[in-house]
Design a protein that fits this description.
Elements: H1 3-20, H2 22-41, E1 65-73, H3 78-83, H4 91-114, H5 129-142, H6 146-149, H7 153-163, E2 171-175, H8 179-188, H9 190-195, E3 201-203, H10 230-234, H11 240-247, E4 248-249, H12 263-276, E5 282-287, H13 289-299, E6 318-328, E7 331-345
Parallel strand pairs: 1-5, 2-3, 2-5, 3-4
Antiparallel strand pairs: 1-6, 6-7
Helix pairs in contact: 1-2
InterPro entries: His_PPase_superfam, PGM_Phosphatase
GO molecular function: phosphatase activity
Length: 349
């Protein structure tokens, strides 16, 4: 039996599947071209050196506004599962399993394309099975009584805010447009959302991760409601479809970050949105490790040696701090109050 005898019907079947799912093929092709363009031309991690924020604060009779921010990093993603060692395996395990893992990931990508699913292992990489376990751990942590977790009044308050306890001040959930961040917020705060079905998770374009990698490109078309990944759908403990349809506000989602942008522009935009467009004093942010670390580097005083400048927030870690705003030299200026930083869950690594 010749190889052609087997290959021809296989290729014909593949061609039929691709033709039947033509719109998905076009969308994935656009993403691929966009991903290549980002890899070549994007300078997302590069920006001019900025002034030390401490130089704008501490003046007499200075008006300072404050917001409390709680960073919540997403769980492990499929991209991480393929390309990062992670805390769950040794270097030897990662090296030995890299090629099989790569074959597995490309096989999934090929299957998703043939099946006509607007989904991907690589683009806008979703939570992996490990990521869902990490999210479940955070969710279970938030179910505990804050009084049994900590004696620190500030940490206790942050837990009450995350849970949206009746005695807690108003807060809002916001998230990156990338699915792993949205899924983390949806699953971690599902009890909060069930008790408060009118609450929303506001998607902010400024929170999109700082990187040129394809996993930082949103697969969700502009002004389109986000859909759960095939992994999310198979997870029985969270109804992602209902939460995404009912609670996620995509009105500000205009597609992917521009190719000529950079991380600092988006971090500055977030600061402006936090003070000018969000009424709540407490903002819970579902986002990404490099974005969070860059934020600490830019808005903590230059002389600060806080661990957040060097280390990443762990998967599903939660860290709170006070963000301050003032006007100086004809512009709005922002700085993190270093003394206000609290590790609510997880920490840095």
């Amino acid at each position: 039996m010749s190889l052609d005898f087997l290959l021809r019907p296989f290729l014909l079947a593949v061609a039929c599947f691709l033709a039947f799912n033509f719109s998905t093929v076009v969308h994935k092709s656009k993403l691929t071209l966009q991903g290549i363009a980002y890899l070549i031309f994007c300078n997302d991690k590069k920006w001019a050196k900025t002034a030390d924020p401490v130089t704008f604060f501490g003046k007499d009779n200075q008006k300072i506004e404050k917001k409390t921010i709680i960073f919540v990093r997403h769980g492990e993603s499929t991209w991480n599962d393929t390309f990062n060692k992670g805390p769950h395996r040794s270097k030897i395990q990662f090296v030995l399993g890299f090629i099989p893992g790569l074959i597995k990931s490309f096989s999934y990508e090929f299957y998703l394309l043939l099946a006509g699913k607007v989904d991907s292992w690589f683009y806008d990489s979703p939570l992996s099975l490990l990521g869902l376990e990490q999210v479940e751990s955070l969710s279970n942590f938030l179910k505990q009584d804050p009084n049994t977790i900590t004696k620190d009044p500030q940490e206790k308050l942050m837990l009450q805010i995350l849970r949206k306890d009746p005695s807690a001040p108003d807060s809002i959930l916001v998230s990156s447009s990338l699915r792993r961040a949205l899924s983390t917020v949806a699953a971690s705060f599902q009890d909060r959302l069930m008790k408060n079905p009118n609450d929303t998770i506001m998607v902010l374009p400024s929170l999109q991760e700082i990187s040129r990698n394809p996993d930082t490109l949103s697969i969700t078309p502009p002004k389109t409601q986000v859909s759960p990944s095939w992994i999310d759908i198979s997870y029985p403990k969270v109804d992602f479809s209902t939460i995404f349809a009912r609670n996620v506000d995509m009105s500000l989602h205009h597609g992917n970050k521009p190719i000529d942008t950079n991380g600092y522009k988006r971090m500055s935009e977030f600061c402006n949105v936090a003070f000018s467009s969000i009424d709540e004093e407490y903002i819970i942010v579902g986002g990404h490790s490099i974005w969070f670390r860059s934020f600490f580097r830019e808005f903590l005083p230059r002389e600060s040696v806080h661990v957040g400048k060097k280390k990443k927030v762990v998967n599903c870690g939660a860290v709170s701090f006070t963000l301050m705003k003032t006007h100086a030299d004809g512009a709005e200026r922002f700085m993190i109050d270093e003394d206000s930083i609290r590790v609510v869950y997880g920490g840095f690594k």
